Amino acid sequence: MIYKMPIMEKVLVRGPNWIGDVVMSSPFFEGMKDAWPDADIYVLTKPHLKDMYLYNPHIKGVITLDEDHGLWGWGTSLREIRKLGFSRGICLPHSVSSALFLWLARVPKRYGRACQHRSIFLTHPVAGTIEDFKGHQMDFYMELLEALAGFNGGDLLPKIYLSEREQKKAYDIANGIERPILGLFASAAYGPAKMWPGRHFIDLANFYIQATGGSVILFGATSDTNTNNYIATSIGSKAYNLAGKTSLLETAGVMGLCDVIVANDSGPMHMAAATGVKTIGIFGSSDPERTAPRGESAHYIYKDLKCSPCMERQCRYGTYDCLKAITPEEVFRKIAE
């Protein structure tokens, strides 16, 4: 069934739970504002993702949800939502808990995908699950918007919005680093089946420095410090390790000042592409048909071996051939195109 909702006064959107999905859902919010320019759009998100929405001009407010303590952590958020008096809620994640929350928040009209047997908590379930969907994750979100608004928004691309503070911090960090700059993201929270070998990143960086005279910036969270230190030490004095030194938005700001970024399939890969910088995604166990970076300067490399995409966290054969088959020389040629 297709639901074409009328103009809304106040709507709450339960946002995705991962950085990459947050980036890929940004056209959904832009499309909502195009469809309902008078609507006040709020987003409900996890605390560590709050900054990703703060400066989005299509979003009026951000409400954080403490899920670390289960149902006991929901009380404050539920009270805040009830006080704001939303007339409609839209659920982007596929989980039962996300639909249950909108029901507990007493949002009168609740929309979302009819997956995970959660339709009991939705007043307007929309058919289709991500498992059955054959396209890109971003298109999955936009198809939901089309069901709700009759608006496709197929020409919209992911965007990241920064404040002047993040932009200034990014310029301060990049100032003095010899250009051109190659940005690298060598980790992946999902697991090693998404991680291009560290030695390949080192060889690629050395090719780049030798060919251009430029520098390399390594991005990552605090948990990526050791991986980045190994790569940066092997590269030498023209490598700069930012692991754990920048916030999400500061990271996006510095990414936007790079000349090219190479990243494993990850949230930071989508962040890089959303800044508009040339981005090359490395795909091993995952499926680029679903999660390739989207943008005018976004590219990816994928070998499409018989065993991939397996979507596993670790290689069942212990070889990681899908990643090893992508050579530093091949990636460097892609950079030079």
Kindly summarize this structure in a few lines.
With 337 residues, this protein is α/β, with parallel strands linked by helices. The chain contains 14 helices and 12 strands.
Please characterize this protein's 3D structure:
There is one protein chain. Helix 7 packs across helix 10 and helix 8 packs across helix 14. The protein is built from 14 helices and 12 strands. The chain has 2 domains: 140 residues, Rossmann fold (3-Layer(aba) Sandwich), CATH 3.40.50; 173 residues, Rossmann fold (3-Layer(aba) Sandwich). With 337 residues, the protein is α/β, with parallel strands linked by helices. The N and C termini lie far apart (45 Å). The model has no long low-confidence stretch (mean pLDDT 94). The strands form 2 sheets. It has a 6-stranded parallel sheet with strand order 3-2-1-4-5-6, sandwiched between helices. The protein has a 6-stranded parallel sheet with strand order 9-8-7-10-11-12, with helices on both faces.
Which class of the largest domain in CATH terms? Alpha Beta
Strands in their spatial order, largest beta sheet: 3-2-1-4-5-6
Give the CA-based shape.
globular
**SS class:** alpha/beta
Helix content: 25-40%
Characterize the main sheet: 6 strands, parallel
Query: What name goes with the CATH superfamily of the largest domain?
Result: Glycogen Phosphorylase B
